[in-house]
């Protein structure tokens, strides 16, 4: 047995009868080391909250095992699992003050009064809720309730802290400020936390590793950098990253020392032809080249910030050019589809203008068109 | 309702007065009747001017009813006591059984839960007369006829479905996550029920208790058939005022005033509590 704090082994979750009900989570394997912060990232209904609730013990595990600090817990009631949780719906006890809500578990555990007071002061200062400690949950705002709920979870000495969309209701400035503080708080105390979120900025800022989920399946489980640089499949590639990765269905052929990547354009009756990207064979490492040529249909992906304007290159017509104050987002029609470029300076371009676009071989992500699995990233095999 | 014209206000006041008059008049009239003798009650035309008398109340309390045909023994006070005892015990037992059951129906999904809950509710559909004959026969065979225990048992038919369905709704309105939050903080299922679910559903439980108390209090037909004089509640006991020498309207009125007094007081008291509880419990989601 590994010494991971949390281990999910082949976990399934069905609502309704096993194998016939609605599958919310399919065969998930996940390990969280002690002291790690993990983000479960995905869109609504991807199974991330179901996963979290199975760990907490509010949902039965349909199949598979859950180990928490070495103990098999999937059949234990929540009270015996020693986890803390901040709920998406806050779920504060309406009959007691915010202070008592936060201190609840510590008081129940009969910690000395002075210790409780000290800890409540610490956590409420960190979350900027000191001024509302003596109010009742119904008289404070949604954002304040959310922070109170977060405080109630973070104050505990649990093996695992589960945070379900912990900052969804907060204003952007406060969110940015608290992200840093919460991360520091968790790391300083050596807590282990799982964060559920659909906000990739939050996941990137807080988590050591991100588990990307879609359709109940764990798509990739890696560090934020790894997910950005080496997406495991087409879904992760297009889901993580803002603006999203540009993708083009293509076929690859080699002729006369050149490698032709033929972007097929929009196949649905668009008359505009595709586009042929031509590279020297030597632009790609041998194994990468071989793998690309071994598949007939591939999907080429390139991040918006890796698409450059150049003196020479493939032609694209500008469709929109937006200056966001710190970067330009340029959308252009390209190979029968559209491509998005990000530039850090204000681009002077008008609609309809033709630009030359360069995509460097090192920035190409190649996916198998059939399975969506990544084949290569730049010069490396996936 | 930003601004209201004077005409609108007058019309509204008028409407409210009419409604109040419509509902309150019978009660006020009965209250006045209870201080009159049969002669003043039955005079034509009726009048609100009379010399008040406490004879009716005196007769009820002492149990000696003076009629034209002579003196009659009634045990109205005993009936009142029976009503109180039967209703209160029934509601107490109903709450004891019904509240945990309601919680189970609200929170736990088990096979046939909806069917069981509906069956319990269906007890309220059938007219009591339908079950009365078999019930009487069974009760006589079992020795439950004319016992407090038997009556309280039958009263569960009235009380239990009401409590179950009202309280279930209140439990369902409590976000399950509040209970989860409590359980994850180191408490078991049972203490979560006691410390979180029960207090939060308090107003609902009070409302259900009050309502079922009134229903039990007002029951007539079960008690009429299943209980003899010494176990009868006021609803049945009031029949004694229909005597050989005529109906004793004054005593009937006094009896009504005495018998609605407890439910009336309870309703007034609980109303304050209900409003308080409901406005305090607001749970924002």
UniProtKB/TrEMBL annotation, chain A:
<keyword id="KW-0547">Nucleotide-binding</keyword>
<keyword id="KW-1003">Cell membrane</keyword>
<dbReference type="InterPro" id="IPR012340">
    <property type="entry name" value="NA-bd_OB-fold"/>
</dbReference>
<feature type="domain" description="ABC transporter">
    <location>
        <begin position="6"/>
        <end position="240"/>
    </location>
</feature>
<keyword id="KW-0067">ATP-binding</keyword>
<dbReference type="Pfam" id="PF00005">
    <property type="entry name" value="ABC_tran"/>
</dbReference>
<dbReference type="InterPro" id="IPR003593">
    <property type="entry name" value="AAA+_ATPase"/>
</dbReference>
<comment type="similarity">
    <text>Belongs to the ABC transporter superfamily.</text>
</comment>
<dbReference type="InterPro" id="IPR013611">
    <property type="entry name" value="Transp-assoc_OB_typ2"/>
</dbReference>
<dbReference type="InterPro" id="IPR015853">
    <property type="entry name" value="ABC_transpr_FbpC"/>
</dbReference>
<dbReference type="InterPro" id="IPR047641">
    <property type="entry name" value="ABC_transpr_MalK/UgpC-like"/>
</dbReference>
<dbReference type="InterPro" id="IPR008995">
    <property type="entry name" value="Mo/tungstate-bd_C_term_dom"/>
</dbReference>
<protein>
    <submittedName>
        <fullName>ABC transporter ATP-binding protein</fullName>
    </submittedName>
</protein>
<dbReference type="InterPro" id="IPR027417">
    <property type="entry name" value="P-loop_NTPase"/>
</dbReference>
<keyword id="KW-0813">Transport</keyword>
<dbReference type="InterPro" id="IPR017871">
    <property type="entry name" value="ABC_transporter-like_CS"/>
</dbReference>
<keyword id="KW-0472">Membrane</keyword>
<dbReference type="Pfam" id="PF08402">
    <property type="entry name" value="TOBE_2"/>
</dbReference>
<dbReference type="InterPro" id="IPR003439">
    <property type="entry name" value="ABC_transporter-like_ATP-bd"/>
</dbReference>
<dbReference type="GO" id="GO:0005524">
    <property type="term" value="F:ATP binding"/>
</dbReference>
Automatic annotation (TrEMBL), chain B:
<feature type="transmembrane region" description="Helical">
    <location>
        <begin position="151"/>
        <end position="171"/>
    </location>
</feature>
<feature type="transmembrane region" description="Helical">
    <location>
        <begin position="204"/>
        <end position="229"/>
    </location>
</feature>
<feature type="transmembrane region" description="Helical">
    <location>
        <begin position="12"/>
        <end position="32"/>
    </location>
</feature>
<feature type="transmembrane region" description="Helical">
    <location>
        <begin position="249"/>
        <end position="270"/>
    </location>
</feature>
<feature type="transmembrane region" description="Helical">
    <location>
        <begin position="84"/>
        <end position="106"/>
    </location>
</feature>
<dbReference type="Pfam" id="PF00528">
    <property type="entry name" value="BPD_transp_1"/>
</dbReference>
<comment type="similarity">
    <text>Belongs to the binding-protein-dependent transport system permease family.</text>
</comment>
<keyword id="KW-0812">Transmembrane</keyword>
<dbReference type="InterPro" id="IPR035906">
    <property type="entry name" value="MetI-like_sf"/>
</dbReference>
<keyword id="KW-1003">Cell membrane</keyword>
<protein>
    <submittedName>
        <fullName>Carbohydrate ABC transporter permease</fullName>
    </submittedName>
</protein>
<feature type="domain" description="ABC transmembrane type-1">
    <location>
        <begin position="80"/>
        <end position="270"/>
    </location>
</feature>
<keyword id="KW-1133">Transmembrane helix</keyword>
<dbReference type="InterPro" id="IPR050901">
    <property type="entry name" value="BP-dep_ABC_trans_perm"/>
</dbReference>
<keyword id="KW-0813">Transport</keyword>
<dbReference type="InterPro" id="IPR000515">
    <property type="entry name" value="MetI-like"/>
</dbReference>
<feature type="transmembrane region" description="Helical">
    <location>
        <begin position="118"/>
        <end position="139"/>
    </location>
</feature>
<keyword id="KW-0472">Membrane</keyword>
